[in-house]
Design brief:
- The termini are far apart.
- By secondary structure, the protein is of the alpha+beta class.
- The protein folds into three domains: about 1-265, no CATH class; about 280-505, no CATH class; about 535-760, no CATH class.
- It is globular and about 80 Å long.
- Helix 12 crosses helix 14, helix 13 runs parallel beside helix 17 (about 595-600) and helix 18 (about 605-620) packs parallel to helix 21 (about 690-710).
- The strands form eleven sheets. The chain has an eight-stranded antiparallel β-sheet with strand order 3-4-5-6-7-11-16-15. Strands 8, 9, 10, 12, 13, 14 and 17 form a seven-stranded antiparallel β-sheet that branches.
- It binds 2-acetamido-2-deoxy-beta-D-glucopyranose (NAG) (12 copies).
- This is Glycogen debranching enzyme.
- Keywords: Signal.
C-alpha cells in the first residue's frame, strides 16, 4: 500500500470488506494497487457522503500489469490507461498560440471501448476571448500518475456491472465554464464535433447535475437502455474554488483558476482485453518491450472478440480496418483460440449480412444503437451494422486462406473454428462460421461472374458502389473518390485477389457445396486480373501534363515549386474511379491505390506488369505536385492532372482523403513493392526482374519510400496527417484536425492511434540481393 491515503469513514467501511475478500481469496493483482484516491490535499472535512467524489481503485485480479501511455500531439494530449477491468483514453485539447480558435477549443474527452462509450466536456474562458483558457492534466502527488483507475465493484441496483473508468487532475489557467457536456456514446460525441453541432435534446436533458460536499459537482446520465449510467465529477483540490452550477436553459459549471480532480466512469459490460503479451505470437513477443508505444496502442485496440479501428473517434468494430490490419500484421499476431487473428476473422463472420453476404463496415453498439432503434420506434439495445461498403467483402477469402490454409495453427483450428455458431447478432444465431463464410463467398462469385464471362468485360459489369451511396471503399469521405461510382482498388485488385483465394480455399477443401470453384474462381480471377487495369488508365502527353500542373499550382495556391522540369515524358496513372463528378469518365486523380495490386496480386501478364510497376515507381519518386512524393510522405491523392477546378477544390490538404498522408498506405505500398521485388528470387521470376532500368527504378523507389517512412517515424502511428508549406522551411507536418476544412465540410480530427497505422510493427525495410 502507498502512503498518503485519506479514507473517509464511509469509503473505508464500504471498501474494506471487498479489499479483505480480495486479499483472502485471490492473489495480488495487476496495477499493484488497492488504492483509494482521495482528492488531493482536500481538507479532511470531506464528509461522510463524499463517496461519489472519491475515485476508488479496487481492481479484480489481473494476470498482467496495467498499461499506461502518454502521447503528445499538440493541441491534443492523449493519455491511455488499461488493466484487465477497463480501458480508457483521455484526450485533453488546449489551444496553441497558432490554433484556429473557431475549431480548437479547450476540451476534456474520455473514450471507452466498451459500448463505444465516452464523455466530453467543452470549456470556454469565463471572461476572456477564445484562446485565453488553457487546460492540462497534472500528475497525482499520491500516485505519481496522470491517470488512475476507478473501480467500484457494485454501484447501484439497476446495473450489475462494476463502475469503471479513470480519474485525474485537470488544471485551468483562468476561470472557466463547462458549456457543453455529453455523456454516453462516442458516436453522439462525433455527431456533435463533426456534424453541424447536433445535440439531441432528450439525451442532453437526461444529464443530472448535483453539488457534492467539498465544493464539487457531479454529472450523471442514465442511458436510453435505462440500465447503464455514465458519471463525470469534479472536486476542487489544492485550495481551488468551489465548482458552481448555473442552472439555465443549458446548465453549465463554473470553475475558478486552479486544479480539480475529475472522475469519469460508467457501468457497462467490459470487453476482455488482449494484453501486449497476448496480442503477439510467441516469436514476436519481444515487440512489447522493443516498441512499447505501438504495442500498448495495439493492445488498447485489441480484445478477445474483436479489434477496434482507432481511438478516440472510431473505437468500435470496422470490417475493412480489421481486415487490412490483419493482412499487414499477421506475421506478428497471436494465432489460435483467443488470439488476435481469430478475433478479427470471427468478428467479421459474426456480422455478415446473411441475406446477401455483405461484410459489416461499422458496428453501432451501446447507447447509440438504442438511440437508432428508438428512431425507428423500436425498443431495443440490439447492435446494428452498416453494410454500405463494397470493398470489405473481398478481404475475407484472403485472410481465410492466409490463416486456415497457410498456417499450421490455422489448419489445426479449422473444424472447431468453422463449427462455431454465431452469437453476436440475433439474426445469425442459427448459422455457423462455415455457413457465413460460404454466403460471403457466394456473393463474390455471383457478382464477379458477368465480367468474367465471354465478352463480358464491360464497364457495366465492373463492381459499382451500392445504389444511393456516395462512398464504398477506404476513401469514404464525400470527395474521397471524386464522385466516382466504380472504384479502382476494388475492381483491379480486391476482386481478382478474392477470387484467387476462393480458388485456393476450394482446392484446400472449403466450399464443398461448389466443387467446381477450384477452377471457376481461378478462371474468373485471371480475367479480373488481366482485363480491369485498362479501364482506369490515364495517359497525359508531356506538354499537357506540364500545363496542368502549373494550372493546379495557381488554382490551389500551393506555395511550393511546381517541379514541372521533372515531367520528362508522358504521365501515365490509374484514376481513382470511373464515372466521377462533372461527367468525368475517369476521376483523373493520381493516387496511392496501386498498393492494393502490389500487395495482393502476383499478376502474370508480363507486359502489363512491367508497365504497371514502371508508373508506380515513377509516382513514388516524383515530387508533388508532379508525383506523390513529399518530405512528409506520399500523398494519397494528387489532383494536379484533373483538368477541372473541382479537383483542386475538393482534394485539399485538409480533406480526409485529399493531399494528405495515410500511414497504412505507406505500409501497404512498402509491403507490396517488397512482395513484387521478392518475386525476383523465385524460380520463375517475372520479366521486370531482368529489365535493368525498370528493376533499378523499382529498387530506387522502394528505398526512397523507406527514407520517407523513416523520416516520418514520429507520425506513423497516427491515422493520417497533413502539412503546411513554408517558403523557408518547405513542408512541415500539421495535424489534419488543426487545418480549416474544405468549404462546406467540418474539420476532421484524426485519431491519434488507428489500428491500421500500427502495421509498421510487422512491415520493415527488406534487403534484396
Ligand atoms: C470561440 O469558441 C467557440 C467554441 O469553441 C466557437 O464556437 C466559436 O466559433 C469561437 N469564436 C470565434 C470568434 O472563433
Ligand atoms: C507525470 O509523470 C510522468 C511519469 O509518470 C512524467 O513523465 C511526466 O513528466 C509528469 N508530468 C508532469 C506534468 O509532471
Ligand atoms: C444521478 O444524479 C442524481 C442527482 O444527484 C441522483 O439523484 C441519481 O441517483 C444519480 N443516478 C445514478 C444512477 O447514480
Ligand atoms: C426505458 O424507459 C422508458 C420509460 O419508461 C421506456 O419508454 C423505454 O422504452 C425504455 N427503454 C428501453 C430500451 O427499455
Ligand atoms: C443550449 O444549447 C443548444 C445546443 O447547443 C444551443 O442551440 C442553445 O443556444 C443553448 N442555449 C443557451 C441559452 O445557451
Ligand atoms: C442485408 O441485405 C439485404 C439484401 O441486400 C438488405 O435488404 C438488408 O437491408 C441488409 N440488412 C441490413 C441490416 O442492412
Ligand atoms: C415513430 O412513431 C411516431 C409517433 O407514433 C411517428 O410519428 C413516426 O413516424 C414513427 N417513426 C417511424 C420511423 O416509424
Ligand atoms: C460441430 O458442432 C456440433 C454441435 O455443436 C458437434 O456435434 C460436432 O461434433 C462438431 N463438429 C466438429 C467437426 O467439431
Ligand atoms: C478441381 O477439383 C476437382 C475435384 O473436385 C478435380 O477433379 C479437378 O482436377 C480440380 N481442378 C484443378 C485445376 O485442380
Ligand atoms: C527532379 O528534378 C530535379 C532537378 O532537375 C532532379 O534533381 C531530380 O532528380 C528529379 N527527380 C526525379 C525523381 O526525377
Ligand atoms: C507473390 O510472390 C511473393 C514472392 O514469391 C510471395 O511472397 C507472395 O506471397 C506472393 N503473393 C501472392 C498474393 O501470391
Ligand atoms: C478557421 O476555421 C474556420 C472554420 O472552419 C474557417 O472558416 C476560417 O477560415 C479559419 N481561419 C483561419 C485563419 O484559417
Amino acid at each position: 500500500m502507498r502512503q498518503g491515503l485519506l479514507f473517509t469513514r464511509h469509503v473505508l467501511v464500504r471498501y474494506v470488506c471487498s479489499l479483505l475478500s480480495y486479499f483472502v481469496t485471490t492473489q495480488f493483482r495487476c496495477s499493484n494497487d488497492l488504492l483509494v484516491y482521495p482528492p488531493e490535499h482536500t481538507s479532511t472535512a470531506t464528509s461522510t457522503s463524499a463517496t461519489a467524489t472519491v475515485s476508488v481503485s479496487n481492481t479484480p485480479t489481473c494476470s498482467s500489469e496495467a498499461t499506461r501511455l502518454h502521447l503528445s500531439d499538440p493541441p491534443y494530449e492523449n493519455y491511455f490507461y488499461e488493466d484487465c477491468a477497463s480501458s480508457s483514453h483521455v484526450v485533453v485539447t488546449s489551444p496553441l498560440e497558432n490554433s484556429n480558435l473557431t475549431i480548437i477549443g479547450p476540451r476534456l474527452l474520455v473514450a471507452w471501448p466498451a459500448g463505444n462509450s465516452g464523455v466530453v466536456a467543452f470549456f470556454e474562458p469565463e471572461d476572456g476571448k477564445n484562446g485565453t483558457l488553457g487546460i492540462q492534466l497534472q500528475n497525482s502527488t499520491a500516485t505519481g500518475q496522470t491517470l488512475d483507475p476507478v473501480y467500484l465493484p457494485t454501484k447501484n441496483a439497476s446495473s450489475e456491472n462494476p463502475q469503471v473508468g479513470v480519474s485525474g487532475i485537470i488544471n485551468f489557467n483562468t476561470s472557466a465554464i463547462l458549456t457543453v457536456p455529453i455523456l454516453g456514446s462516442i458516436r453522439t460525441i462525433r455527431d456533435f464535433t463533426e456534424g453541424p453541432s447536433i445535440l439531441i435534446t432528450y439525451i442532453q436533458g437526461a444529464i443530472s447535475f448535483s453539488e457534492i460536499p467539498g465544493g464539487g459537482a457531479n454529472l450523471n446520465r442514465t442511458w436510453l437502455d435505462n440500465v447503464t449510467t455514465t458519471y463525470l465529477g469534479f472536486v476542487p483540490i489544492n485550495g481551488s474554488g468551489a465548482v458552481s452550477i448555473n442552472r439555465g436553459v443549458n446548465t453549465t459549471l463554473r470553475f475558478e483558476t486552479g486544479s480539480y480532480q475529475f472522475t469519469a466512469s460508467f457501468d457497462y459490460p467490459q470487453l476482455e482485453p488482449l494484453s501486449p503479451s497476448q496480442v503477439f505470437n510467441p516469436s514476436s513477443s519481444d515487440l512489447a518491450q522493443q516498441d512499447p508505444d505501438q504495442a500498448t496502442s495495439l493492445s488498447f485496440l485489441s480484445y478477445t472478440t474483436k479489434l477496434l479501428a482507432g481511438t478516440w473517434r472510431f473505437l468500435t468494430y470496422f470490417g475493412r480496418d480489421s481486415m487490412l490490419s490483419l493482412l499487414l500484421l499477421q506475421p506478428v499476431l497471436s494465432e489460435g483460440e483467443g488470439g488476435a487473428i481469430e478475433a478479427v476473422i470471427g468478428a467479421f463472420l459474426e456480422r455478415i449480412n446473411r441475406t446477401d453476404g455483405s461484410g459489416c463496415h461499422e458496428e453501432t453498439i451501446g447507447d447509440y444503437s438504442t438511440y437508432l432503434n428508438r428512431n425507428k420506434n423500436i425498443t431495443s439495445t440490439a447492435p446494428q451494422c452498416d453494410y454500405k461498403m463494397i470493398d470489405t467483402d473481398y478481404y475475407l477469402p484472403i485472410v481465410l486462406k492466409n490463416y486456415f490454409v497457410d498456417s499450421a495453427t490455422g489448419k489445426s483450428r479449422l473444424s472447431s473454428f468453422f463449427n462455431t455458431t454465431a452469437s453476436v447478432f440475433e439474426e445469425n444465431s442459427d448459422l455457423t462460421y462455415a455457413d457465413l463464410a460460404l454466403i460471403a463467398a457466394e456473393k463474390i462469385m455471383n457478382t464477379s461472374a458477368p465480367f468474367a464471362a465471354d465478352g463480358g468485360q464491360t464497364r457495366d459489369n465492373l463492381i459499382h458502389l451500392k445504389e444511393g451511396e456516395i462512398v464504398g471503399e477506404w476513401r469514404d469521405s464525400t470527395y474521397g473518390i471524386g464522385g466516382g461510382r466504380i472504384p479502382y482498388d476494388v475492381n483491379t485488385a480486391l476482386v481478382p485477389a478474392a477470387l484467387h483465394n476462393i480458388a485456393a480455399l476450394s482446392t484446400a477443401g472449403f466450399f464443398l457445396e461448389h466443387p467446381a470453384w477450384n477452377e471457376t474462381a481461378s478462371q474468373y480471377a485471371q480475367v479480373w486480373e488481366d482485363k480491369t487495369l485498362e479501364f482506369f488508365e490515364v495517359t497525359i502527353p508531356q506538354s499537357t501534363a506540364k500545363s496542368l500542373v502549373e494550372q493546379y499550382v495557381n488554382e490551389s495556391a500551393f506555395a511550393g515549386p511546381s517541379h514541372t522540369d521533372n515531367i520528362t515524358s508522358d504521365i501515365v496513372f490509374h484514376g481513382l474511379a470511373l464515372d466521377g463528378n462533372n461527367n468525368q469518365s475517369i476521376v483523373r486523380v493520381l493516387n496511392t491505390d496501386d498498393c492494393f495490386r502490389l500487395f495482393l496480386l502476383n499478376s502474370t501478364n508480363q507486359t502489363q506488369l512491367s508497365s504497371f510497376l514502371d508508373q508506380t515507381a515513377g509516382h513514388i519518386l516524383l515530387p508533388f505536385p508532379v508525383g506523390l512524393s513529399s518530405p512528409v510522405g506520399l500523398f494519397v491523392a494528387n489532383p494536379a492532372y484533373g483538368d477541372d477546378p473541382v479537383y483542386a477544390a475538393n482534394f485539399t490538404n485538409s480533406a480526409y482523403h485529399g493531399t494528405v498522408v495515410w500511414s497504412w498506405q505507406l505500409a501497404m505500398t512498402a509491403a507490396g513493392l517488397a512482395r513484387q521485388l521478392g518475386r525476383c528470387s523465385s524460380t520463375t521470376p517475372p520479366d521486370f526482374c531482368a529489365q535493368p532500368p525498370l528493376y533499378t527504378k523499382l529498387r530506387t523507389a522502394y528505398s526512397h519510400l523507406w527514407d520517407l517512412i523513416d523520416a516520418n517515424a514520429a507520425q506513423l502511428s497516427g491515422e493520417v496527417w497533413s502539412w503546411v508549406y513554408d517558403s523557408s522551411e518547405g513542408f512541415r507536418v500539421e495535424p489534419l484536425g488543426a487545418l480549416p476544412p474544405p468549404l462546406g465540410t467540418s474539420p476532421t480530427e484524426s485519431d491519434i492511434r488507428q489500428l491500421w497505422s500500427l502495421t509498421f510493427l510487422a512491415v520493415h525495410r527488406e534487403e534484396f540481393g
